[in-house]
Design brief:
Rossmann fold, 10 helices, alpha/beta, eight-stranded mixed β-sheet
Length: about 290
């Protein structure tokens, strides 16, 4: 536990108070406190909660467990490899003693943990990963499973970090706040956003949304919104099939928002449809700040 608190102490210069915006310090390795006395305890579980009011999460323990099983089965592996390659290409040309990577909307921490692990294998740079999410339950899971990363419960609308602190901001299948992303990225930093492609889980989409306009999906509006806020400096499509067992299909159905609000009848139809693989289609958008 002391190692986690030391991590906060070593990186406290990045933080700003979410209440007043002042700088912060670690108080006796038990809490982080600003110059105006606003105090946030470092949990024994290895994270700090910087929300000003309880966050609203639509997720539950069953969904977290399903997502963890799907992640560990290799569902996202090719996507993570592509993201790591893009980060490595970018940071290899940067001149900085410490590289900082923020996962904004990190969930239970799997993506960031894999990204950091793979980056450490590829480079000797001093790289610190930080994950934030509005869900305390997911941050608790992240802090329990991945010890070398700084985890914070925080709101994307009020990111608790000073200006220009990050070389890389990741935003993987999660909502965005481009104003805050632009503020916390350093001048040479990049934003990497991952969104579903048009063929993402099309096998499930055809079952759940048959005879509706939701069978087809387009992320054009997401890309346009990104381009209005950041310079798009690159895009990459990651498309592959993932073989899936019936038990894993059940976890995938629980995990994906595609099934939320659908009928039990359609869920059972998906189980009995003989799906033995699903299509994974992701678009990675890379951007930098509009200076």
């Amino acid at each position: 536990m002391n190692d986690i608190k030391t991590k906060f102490n070593e990186n406290i210069q990045m933080f700003k108070c979410p209440v007043c915006g002042d700088g912060m310090l670690v108080d006796d390795l038990k809490s982080i406190v600003c110059t105006n006395g606003h105090c946030f305890d470092i949990s024994k579980r290895g994270y700090v909660n910087l929300l000003l009011r309880p966050g609203k999460s639509h997720y539950d323990k069953e969904l977290f467990e399903a997502r963890s099983i799907i992640c560990k089965a290799g569902f996202f592996d090719p996507l993570i490899e592509a993201v790591v390659s893009l980060i490595y290409q970018r940071i290899s040309s940067m001149n900085s003693e410490l590289m900082t990577v923020l996962d904004a909307g990190c969930g239970e921490g799997f993506h960031l943990s894999r990204v950091m692990s793979d980056l450490h294998k590829k480079t000797n740079f001093n790289i610190q990963g930080i994950g934030i999410d509005i869900s305390k339950e997911e941050i608790q899971i992240a802090a329990k499973n991945y010890k070398d990363i700084i985890w914070c419960v925080a709101d994307l609308a009020r990111v608790p970090f000073k200006d220009k602190q990050f070389q890389v901001v990741l935003n993987i299948l999660s909502p965005s706040n481009y104003k805050e992303f632009g503020r916390i990225l350093c001048d040479e930093g990049i934003l990497i956003k991952v969104v579903p492609g048009s063929s993402y889980l099309k096998e499930l989409r055809e079952v759940f949304y048959q005879e509706t306009d939701r069978v087809a999906y387009s992320n054009d509006k997401v890309t346009e919104h990104f381009g209005r806020n950041f310079n798009i400096i690159g895009t990459q499509k990651v498309l592959y099939n993932f073989s899936i067992k019936n038990e894993e299909l059940g976890y995938l159905i629980k995990m994906t928002p595609l099934s939320w609000g659908t009928t039990d009848e359609k869920v059972q139809k998906a189980f009995s449809s003989g799906i033995d693989y699903v299509t994974l289609d992701f678009d990675i958008i890379v951007g930098n700040r509009k200076l």
